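[job 0412] stage=fold_complex status=start
inputs:
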Amino acid sequence: MSATIPLSWFLLVGAGLFSIGLYGALARRNAVAVLMGIELLLNAVNINLVAFNRYIVPQQVTGQVFAIFVLAIAAAEAAVGLALIISIYRSRDTVNLEDIDLLKG
Amino acid sequence: MTASTLQAILPAIILVISAMAVVAVDLITHRRARDVVLAGVAVVGLLLAAVAAFTLVGTTPQSVLDMLVVDGFSTFLMVTVLIGMVLVVIYSIDYIKLVGEHRSEYYAFLLAVALAITIAVSANDLLMVYLAMEFVSITSYVLVGFLRGDKRSNEAAIKYFLYGAVASAVMLYGISMLFGVTGTTNLNAVAQALAGETLAGGMRWLAFSSVVLLIVGFGFKTSLVPFHQWAPDTYEGAPTPITGFLSTASKAAGFALMVRVFIVALPSFAVDWLTVLAGVSMITMTLGNLVALRQTNIKRLLAYSSIAQAGYILMGLVCIPQAQFGLRPLQDFAFNGINGILIYLFAYVFTNLGAFAVVIAIENQTGKVDVKDYAGLIYRSPWLASLLLIFLLSLTGIPPTLGFWGKYFVFGAAVQVQFFALLIVALINSAIAAGYYLNIVRYMFLMPAEDEERIKIAPSLGIVLGVTFVAVLGLGILPGQLIQWASESAQFLVQF
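[job 0412] stage=fold_complex status=done
writing structure:
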């Protein structure tokens, strides 16, 4: 197995994606956009897992199986998240997180 | 897959079956009998699972497909949490009847979250750690937002969801780096890979940052400062029985994951995570208690109190004698930190569920959840006032309640490792906490009641109050068996 692209390149892409996702999750005010940021975070993890698997333990599939589990969980999480966003849109007509402020103190 | 393996996961199997049974029974039950029958199925399922978990106590630890480890530590927490979940189901009956939302789904989700917690307490692989954590979280998001027509419940759920999803994704990034450093996800194998002096400089930094990222995820689940911001809003807006669940069983799951990952997989980085967690523990208890002082809503007050309690529980993990990591046998230590965590969690589950049962009794009848509505409670319901007094004394940590023994063992661990700075912070905090706990007592016993209406205790709440009362005061007076069980359970964690 002669890889021409070094592992660090994959990790840099992963780190970049993670940073963009974290920025999106923390800075955006729209709940759907925050959810998209979270999906980016999970995809960064998947790149890491698959790249590590290929370069560190190529004879095993642990990392790839882990990545498939992450995909499934991400789908479940998005389903629940969107359901919650829809129910809050129905009761308030907004998905702007700054306007969702009944609970405080 | 042998018979003993099947026996080890029997509690989980029973919970899966009963979660499906609840939904099926809903279809064939008459509308009027439904409330009691559905809750009955859930209670029977949880009790059977608790019995199945109890039969595992004292057996030799065994590994299930290298993914789960069923040992003393996990069976102790399984039994505690499953009995706690029985109480949550029972005190939900009248509450859910009042709000009238889809009941079978509610009980099915409670059983699913109980299943998630039985997996969480025995997860021994980074994959299972992540799956268990997400399983607990996703079911909790749904339960928090269960009152779909209620704006506050919606808001609590969306805040919990967004916070939780980011925290678990950040933790997962840490897990991926830990996998990269060690090439494995099994906790024991991770520990072996990290043990030698072979880690190159860069790899060491990768592992260190993954420790920090793991703390983010566990800190969210156990509401440690600075990852606690969701807790007050979510606790206030969620249906009250679910608030009781979040502050006890869900927190126990988070601590179980955190303790097992750090002690089993990361002993070589103990110096790093002990330092970070010691600081987190001090900040958590101080901030939780100081903000709790000025709360007027009782659910919010109990939320900040539960943040502070998480700080005390964390002391158990911070004050593990270094001997835990292979220098001297664990039984040389009476206070080994882990038994402190177990006893504290046991005490906290029963005390807090009892306190929430009182809050629910009052909320079901009057709809009020402010501390000032508790004025003159002694005249309106002497029973509720006296019971809440006992639970608050237990939360404060005053003997002869069970809460005292929890504090005794975590504070004892701090003395054992001579971490006096942490001990002093914790003692000062206990005094501050007494301030707001006893403020509720002052309202209940010394202030005149605004409303003379007597508060009735529903039979379901009576059961919960009875069980929690016996646990808090009975085991508080005679704690010998519990302490012995917890201390034996704690041994397994490092032996396996």
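[job 0412] summary: The domain at 7-93 of chain A is CATH 1.10.287.3510 (Helix Hairpins).
[job 0412] exit 0
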